[in-house]
User: What shape does this take?
Amino acid sequence: MTRFFGSPGLFVLLSALALGLSAGAPVGAQERGDIVRNHIQLKRLSQYEVTRAYPGEVRAQRRSRMAFQVSGTIAKALVEEGDSVRRGQVLLRLDRRLLRAAADVAQANLKNALAVANLSKITLQRNQLLYDRGHISKQRHDQITADHRAASAGVDQARASLRLALVNYEYGELKAPYDGRVQGRFADEGAVVTAGTPVLELVESNALEVIVGLPAGTGRSLGESDEFTLMINGAEVPGRLLGMTPALADGSRTLRARFAIPQDTPALAGDLAELSIALKRSEPGFWVPMAALSESMRGLWAIYVLVPKPGAGARTFRIERRLVDVLHSERNQAYVQGSVEDGECILTGGVQLLVPGQDITLRPGNRCGG
Assistant: This one.
């Protein structure tokens, strides 16, 4: 027996066990402060809040691939990629000599139509006197009247042709429809372009928005008066809901929500964004620290409840192991349901060193619920 207890290895093992028991069993006078004083009193809640993050993209509210409305040869390119432009500024100009000639022809046609209409008016006035005196037939009078009306219609047609020629002449210049920046230019001087062929892309510079795809249920719960927080380039940015698509997108099965952001936001079209939304879940339960949980069976977890021990004083408790279901967890806490009641106290640390049925005594000044 003496040789057995004298074994150096066994002596070290027994010493370690003795130290472990004295450090881990907070019973009676051998209570350990960092275990028995770490407890909280449970408070039942009717709901909990979950924060969900949804990815999105910063986009310009307006982005246009611009084209001439008439065909022609580009005579002058006045902007380059990346240039800032103002509304109404000329970006590209066609060779407008043919358009100018067409306008001149239309002007000449209008003058001719006016002369013909004036002559028909005089002829009608003269023949009206003859008709009133019975010197010409009614058929001849009707013919002259119809000629005058046709001449008047010819004037209207010539005026419309002149307006069209002048509009086409104006269309020979491509102008910025809003303030923005040139994203790309697809044609240079000398290129022959047809009407409707994109030659330049313009991105609005002072009106950015964020597009986020949301699940249908989440999207329908949002209101335009709600305040939203977006994360762009590592900075929090306030957002305001502008609108939402009325139907789910075919590929992603999400609703596309548009959020306005301040004009001074340091972001570019194409930057990634993240929308954080706090969703409320109507489930009764308790918030507990993650350190209070120990893993159990079948996906459940356990917490250690301090049950008062009758006749042992206000600071002495017996430990009961209760099973709970974790509904949600975030950072260092979890929201749980289970066989615990409102107002009960649970241990929040050192639970791996305890066993159910064990008695512990809280340090002086530490009371459950106190």
The domain at 51-61+205-281 is CATH 2.40.30.170 (Elongation Factor Tu (Ef-tu); domain 3).
